Amino acid sequence: MSHFKDNMTAEQLAERALFHLKYSRGKDLRAATTFDKMMCFSHAVRDMAVDGFIATQRQYLDQDVRRVNYLSMEYLIGKMLSNNVYALGIEKIACEALKALNITTEEILALDVEAGLGNGGLGRLAACYLDSLATKELPAYGYGIRYEHGIFRQEFDHGWQKERPDEWLALGYPWELIRPEYTLPVCVYGRVKKNFRPGQGTADVWEDFQVFEAVPYDVPIIGYQVNTVNMLRLWKSQPAEGFRLDVFNQGDYVRAVEEKNWAENVSKVLYPSDYTYAGKELRLIQEYFLASCSVRDIIRRYKKNHSDYSKFAEKNVIQLNDTHPTLAIVELMRVLHDEEQIPWDDAWDITVSTFCYTNHTLLAEALEKWTVDLLQRVLPRHMQIIFEINHRFLQKVELNHPGDGDLMRKVSLIEEGQHKQVRMANLCVIGSNKVNGVSALHSNLLKTNTMPEFNKVYPGKFTNVTNGITHRRWLIKANPELSELISENIGEDWKLDLAELNAFEAYASKRAVQKKFMEIKRQKKVELCQTIKELTGYIVSPDSVFDVQIKRLHMYKRQLLKAMHIIHLYNKIKADPKTKIQPKTFIFAAKAAPAYLIAKSVIKLINTMAEVINNDVDVAGRLKVVFLPDYNVSLAEKIIPAADISEQISTAGLEASGTGNMKLSLNGALTVGTWDGANIEIAQNVGEDNIFIFGNRTEDLAELGRKGYNPWAYMDKSEDLQGVLEALRDNSFDPSEPDLFKDLYNEVTEHGDFYYYLADYEDYIKCNEEVDKLYAKPTKWAEKAILNVARMGWFSSDRSIQDYVDDIWHLKKTPVDMTDDIS
């Protein structure tokens, strides 16, 4: 089967880039800036993707394939240029073509834009899944929001996090195709009235709503070395009626653009703060915006081949990535029942057969709830439908479990209280045919702890798909030197099937391979040292252990526990400056939610510690602390290959899965972690001898909680821990502000230590001592690091997607034939 890039030469690619330089940028080579060259070359590469994209969509339509529609509020797709060049297999001709533009690959890659479409693991996972779906030649669409501003650009001001707008669209984005012809109206507010229809009784009709519009932008998702090019469709909000000239001419300039501003705010920023009523309302509208547009777009596409809805669920899966797109369930019901006049029971059967839901959290506060009042105000008809879904569902529960009032209360969509709330996770479960967790432990806890009542009502509905990562970005692109070492020893097959990576295990004990592996690791550390110097001004040694904790800043992820370990080491040195300690560089990168004040205090603490420790002559050459600002995909691609230690130290039972742990282990970092999330499956795959597990397990913490957990008891019996906590309480790093970190001290003492820092502290210290002992044996360390790399094949997102296909989606592989001439 021919590939759409097979006949492309370096000369043709250069010609296409020069065409775009002239006709898309309006310049010739003499006037072109580096930015112009990056944009015109990106457009040339996009043109190649469009060929595959057209052929792919044509084949899906002609064959009337079953498709998965992936709905997610986040997609952290990272920089696309190098990724797309690699997926197309045109690295060599790209380098040649760029000579005609008098520029190098490195120069234009430096200017490529990182799309601000996500926050953390949820968005990165969605991006990996889109990559794997295309590579495995599976019919798929991603749906998201085209945020004008992403999460935020993080800066530090005297150690405090400051949020700045992420202006990723300011200079244009070369990978998107605008589709104004598929613009959709979106309705909010209004009221519902009874409408009498002769012979049919009364019907509820939604009217007097406010309308704005959704414009789709498509980003091609290129499969690796296949013809499949799938699509990520991103919705941008705009006013249905923009600038009011009549109002402007009356002199009311503010009101003239009021509607325009209101409508554009919907896709303005990722996760508007919901600490105010207006913020909550905007966030709800944003979630409905994604759900409504995506559902109606799926219906539009389905209607190309079908005149009724009898095969809708057969031809479409809608996968909800967390609870944010839950309203898609209600929207599909509204369209089927209200607009298409399908009887309720039939519409409900179609809906449940279409939807599937991925749960990403066990944290009660992260399971979304919306007040009934707010939903009735913003989406009055949808609230009616939710009440009706709940009424019919509870009738069935009562029928099957008569007299079980407690069960009814827990599974109800409506949480009673001063302000009635709609439980979105419950709606996801009721409205889906399959519900999956994202690691074995998480899925089990979902059934036994978080939603045992639903497991009773729906036996067999819950399943597991452990998360995965795409090695194409996180090993082959991020760490080409290690990739080359692997290929030198076991060939290239592992690049197409990561399960083949296990052949590298045979080389773990070979001295020549160990030597080369450690040389590569040091090289990546040297490169990261340069980045650290550029971003922070700190100079760190590549010969120290790089101990890395990179993830969203949250108290359950316990960055504070790592800080406590650093204070322990610092106190030890200050008590005896001659103490021998394995030289270590502690590297943090994380963003805290703008309103998450205690998490921001952790950032300030680490930056304050860095300022003192990095300039203290007593610890020179032994400890360095670095907090890298503005963590994103590009920064992760630099940190991960350089890491020696991967910190995965969340409170047991609270981390759903994790994917950073997989990326770090795949690049030869040894995990220090709790028995939590995917750490468990990593331990099972790499071997418990090749990972450092510490701390209480989920069942231990449950027992501690039952007995009445007392954090003071741990403090009372440990002078070392007392010294660490006193440093927090009194701010020994900056005595001029003695109460600065009192909130952190109180969190782990007076407020009950909800995340069990003190219960795990002693074991964590001992575990790190074991790490140091092993690092002192370079041969043994290298062997274990290589075994981590070799045994991570199971954690490919290709395997995750295959699990979804086999157990949940039931898609058919659909290779795209490019033999027909594309016109």
TrEMBL record:
Catalysis performed (reactions): [(1->4)-alpha-D-glucosyl](n) + phosphate = [(1->4)-alpha-D-glucosyl](n-1) + alpha-D-glucose 1-phosphate
UniProt KW keywords: Carbohydrate metabolism, Glycosyltransferase, Pyridoxal phosphate, Transferase
Needed co-factor(s): pyridoxal 5'-phosphate
Keyword Lyase on entry: no
KW Transferase (keyword) present: yes
Gene3D superfamilies: Glycogen Phosphorylase B
GO molecular function, one term: 1,4-alpha-oligoglucan phosphorylase activity
InterPro entries: Glycg_phsphrylas, Glyco_trans_35, Pyridoxal_P_attach_site
Source domain of life: Bacteria
Enzyme Commission no: 2.4.1.1
Top-tier EC class: transferase
Biological role: Phosphorylase is an important allosteric enzyme in carbohydrate metabolism. Enzymes from different sources differ in their regulatory mechanisms and in their natural substrates. However, all known phosphorylases share catalytic and structural properties.
NCBIfam families: P_ylase
Family label: Belongs to the glycogen phosphorylase family.
Protein name in the entry: Alpha-1,4 glucan phosphorylase
Native source organism of the sequence: Pontiella agarivorans
Taxonomic lineage from the root: Bacteria, Pseudomonadati, Kiritimatiellota, Kiritimatiellia, Kiritimatiellales
